[in-house]
Amino acid sequence: xxxxxxxxxxxxxxxxxxxxxxxxxxxxxxxxxxxxxxxxxxxxxxxxxxxxxxxxxxxxxxxxxxxxxxxxxxxxxxxxxxxxxxxxxxxxxxxxxxxxxxxxxxxxxxxxxxxxxxxxxxxxxxxxxxxxxxxxxxxxxxxxxxxxxxxxxxxxxxxxxxxxxxxxxxxxxxxxxxxxxxxxxxxxxxxxxxxxxxxxxxxxxxxxxxxxxxxxxxxxxxxxxxxxxxxxxxxxxxxxxxxxxxxxxxxxxxxxxxxxxxxxxxxxxxxxxxxxxxxxxxxxxxxxxxxxxxxxxxxxxxxxxxxxxxxxxxxxxxxxxxxxxxxxxxxxxxxxxxxxxxxxxxxxxxxxxxxxxxxxxxxxxxxxxxxxxxxxxxxxxxxxxxxxxxxxxxxxxxxxxxxxxxxxxxxxxxxxxxxxxxxxxxxxxxxxxxxxxxxxxxxxxxxxxxxxxxxxxxxxxxxxxxxxxxxxxxxxxxxxxxxxxxxxxxxxxxxxxxxxxxxxxxxxxxxxxxxxxxxxxxxxxxxxxxxxxxxxxxxxxxxxxxxxxxxxxxxxxxxxxxxxxxxxxxxxxxxxxxxxxxxxxx
Length: 586
Fold this sequence. Notes:
- The protein has helices at about 5, 10-15, 15-50, 55-105, 105-110, 115-130, 135-155, 160-165, 170-205, 210-215, 215-245, 245-270, 275-285, 290-315, 375-385, 405-410, 425-430, 440-450, 455, 475-490, 505-520, 555-560, 565-585, and strands at about 335-345, 355-360, 365-370, 390-395, 400, 415, 495-500, 525-530, 540-545, 550-555.
- The chain is an alpha/beta fold.
């Protein structure tokens, strides 16, 4: 149960002064609080014995006032110290998690879904922060404060009465221990359920258009109701298990009060205790209620914190399996060579790239074509270090590709993926993302090269037009061209367009290709596509099928081979001519 505190030891060490001062403030505040019943008992004894006078009354008033003011100031100091520490822990752990997630590649995110990561980064880290804040408060209250109270009851009143009063509370330990284990298990189950709800909600939001197009709104609403009902029941189980602590404390506390009144009355009658002692003892006993309840609160917090710590540690300790520990720096891209290269995804039963032989000279334009699932994107992912490097030879210049520093490699590459990721910001901000402090002139140049200028003129606010979350307010072709402009403004030594021209018309496509060839002389460009017109001007085209290169050459050379490329080119040309004829008739 206390494992979570041990695992947060690093944080407590880093903020040792803050927590030490907070604990000192908490301890002194508790001491001031427990002195009040002692003074009350003295005052009542003075009244009963008939020795109360103005001077004594003034002393008691001043003593009460000083203790109340000190208690207030000390409580303020430790509450601020502990709970500001809790927020500091949240900030620190979320920053650490974000740094970890940004370093991870595709295999990691295949294991952990977005909704699950969000739950762990919010709910679970918040539970850990409660341990560092409220948890530390109840820990001190249920130990130090309770210990001071018991000591004061024994020293200032009577040890026999104190022990007799505490004995009825001991059975609570068994109840707390047994129910605490249940809370741990049920809380973790509820958190997993919450992660699943998060995952499905994100999918619903992303797929809203498809859901509406297929008139599936009611189905998804019903599914969401069932999920939230299930989450409700699981959280209720946590609450029901935790709810037993309060009544248990009150039940055994009732026995304790009965013992205190019965035995205390006997001691007063026998002259062992004074009336003031008895009243002071009852005040002390009343003050023990919160520390005893705090024990149950502590168990709840530590159990939930332990479950959350396990969930956070799981994603923080997990890796993507990539050993990107290359040490060679790179400032210039050189020739890229694959020799007898093989690769297979961890979840794949067959080889995804087989005996790959490819020489890509610096400054050349390479076209990669093939049917869906032929291995085009898999090859690109090797260049992007998104998956572990396969077997065989994969070199750039005189070094193996994995020997280069990964950040240095990424600075050399501009990548436009199939699934375009745009931010809920302006056109300017999305394009300037590719180059820090890019000028409007540079942005406009990249826009012209991506053939987006005419579209931009139709937007009322021009570069300041907000494109909506994930570009939902613009068309697919516009998304692609903004993404291409973002890559071009970076002016990378390697530009990769992974089927990034599929949503633009043939004329726009040719304009973009011509612009790329013009502005990227002596720089390497790779284009994967299903539309062969996009790679007609390539220096070399490779045709892939089932992870193998089955044809290679220039456009003219491949046409002469009369293989897959030739057949596919004829089909696309026929379709293009038919579309043009229909347009002329209309």
